[in-house]
Write a structure and sequence with these properties.
about 250 residues, alpha/beta, seven-stranded mixed β-sheet, two-stranded parallel sheet, about 15% strand
Length: about 250
């Protein structure tokens, strides 16, 4: 049977975790979870252990000793999933912004369109956001547009964090070289998958504001993503025309 692992980084998500886990498990037997908790002071890690006993063999829990960030949590989850032999690995927020009802649609997209990476997109037809103030919409859409133009990508929602990877994609990536630490991680992972020649597609999702707790977004996270895009741009190989012009200037 095909097996999928949903990687759930958590920090102070005690108000969301139990119903979210229930909803993910309800999507089918193929879906397992690994909760990666960064020593949440609200008891999220303890709750995760209780849920593990509720669903034997379906949930694993990793406890980290400090708040180490979203990107490192996902990378740890990917390494865990590859070691355990999962066929698909998902990124998903633990605050109900990402609805578990879409999980099977991601898998179906890989089968019907041969996608290697499937992104849950707010900015393709049928997608959207709910309960967001106008300025958050502007920041999100502006960030995606900026990254798309800078990196020459056709993906509409580069900053979204609801994703499905075939294991082959993650095996081909040098995960130890992924350098983004915040939400720029989402852009970098998609960019590097495209650079490796993998097929990336998008399916529409409606992104909702979190049900409980506080958003982790900050100005620092946003700025880190902007600088990371500029760095990736500098890494891009020169086109033939650019190489010729550089040679002309040097000679």
């Amino acid at each position: 049977m095909v097996r999928a692992l949903v990687v759930l980084p958590t920090y102070n998500e005690a108000g969301n975790l139990a119903p979210l886990v229930d909803a993910i498990i309800a999507q089918g037997e193929m879906f397992n979870l690994v909760v990666i908790d960064d020593s949440s002071p609200d008891g999220t890690g303890v709750l995760a252990e209780r849920l593990k006993t509720r669903y034997p063999g379906r949930i694993d829990v990793m406890h980290r000793q400090a708040k180490l960030g979203l990107a490192t949590a996902y990378l740890a989850g990917f390494q865990f999933g590859l070691t355990k032999g999962f066929d698909y690995l998902f990124e998903m927020d633990a605050d109900f912004s990402h609805d578990p009802k879409y999980l099977n649609q991601f898998i179906q997209e890989t089968k019907t369109r041969g996608a290697d990476v499937v992104l849950g997109s707010r900015y393709v037809e049928g997608g959207g956001v709910a309960n967001w103030p106008w300025y958050r919409r502007m920041i999100s859409m502006g960030g995606s547009r900026y990254a798309r133009m800078m990196l020459g990508l056709s993906v509409q929602d580069l900053t979204g964090g609801f994703k499905c990877f075939r294991r082959e994609v993650l095996e081909a990536m040098p995960l130890h070289e992924i350098s983004a630490t915040g939400y720029g991680f989402q852009i970098e992972m998609t960019y590097r998958a495209v650079q490796k020649g993998f097929k990336v597609t998008e399916i529409p999702i409606v992104f909702a504001e979190r049900r409980a707790g506080q958003s982790k977004m900050s100005a620092g996270i946003f700025l880190e993503a902007l600088f990371m895009v500029a760095r990736l741009k500098l890494e891009q190989p020169l086109s033939a025309r650019e190489q010729a012009e550089e040679h002309r200037l040097r000679s």
